Amino acid sequence: MADAPRRIGLPWYRREDYPRIRDMMADRHNLAPTYNAWLAAAQNNEDVGRQAGLRIARIIIEPDSFAKWCAERGVEPGSAARMDYVSERCAQESD
C-alpha cells in the first residue's frame, strides 16, 4: 500500500487583507509589494508542490486572527510565525 501524499499548508492571503498583512509583518520586505505579484508566486509554488506529489492546503492568514495568535505566543509576526501558524492550522484541518 502506497503512502498517502504528504499534506502541506501554504500561507494564503485574501486580496482585501494583503496590504494590512504586509504592513503588520516584521519581514514585509520579503513579501511581494502587490497582491498580484504575491498571487503569481504563490500559485507557482502551489503548482510545483502538486507536481512533486504533495497535497497542498491553502491556509488563509486573516490579519486579526494572526495578530492574536502571535500575541498569545509572544512571537513577532514574520516568516517563522507564518510557517508555524500555517502548520498548526493545517494539522487542525486534517484532524
Topology record:
Layout: E1 7-12, H1 18-24, H2 35-51, E2 55-60, H3 63-73, H4 79-94
Parallel strand pairs: 1-2
Can you describe this structure?
The protein is an alpha+beta fold and 95 residues long. The chain is built from 4 helices and 2 strands, in the order βααβαα. The chain has one domain. It has a two-stranded parallel sheet. The model has no long low-confidence stretch (mean pLDDT 93).
A few lines on this structure:
This protein has 95 residues and is α+β, with helices and mostly antiparallel strands. It has one domain (7-94).
Number of domains: 1
* Largest beta-sheet details: 2 strands, parallel
Largest sheet: spatial strand order: 1-2
Name the helix and strand elements from N-terminus to C-terminus, one letter apiece: EHHEHH
Gross morphology is globular
Instruction: Report strand %.
Output: 5-15%
How many separate helices? 4
Helix content: 40-55%
Query: Which class best fits the helix and strand makeup?
Result: alpha+beta
Supply the key terms.
single chain; 95 residues; alpha+beta; 2 strands; 54% helix; globular
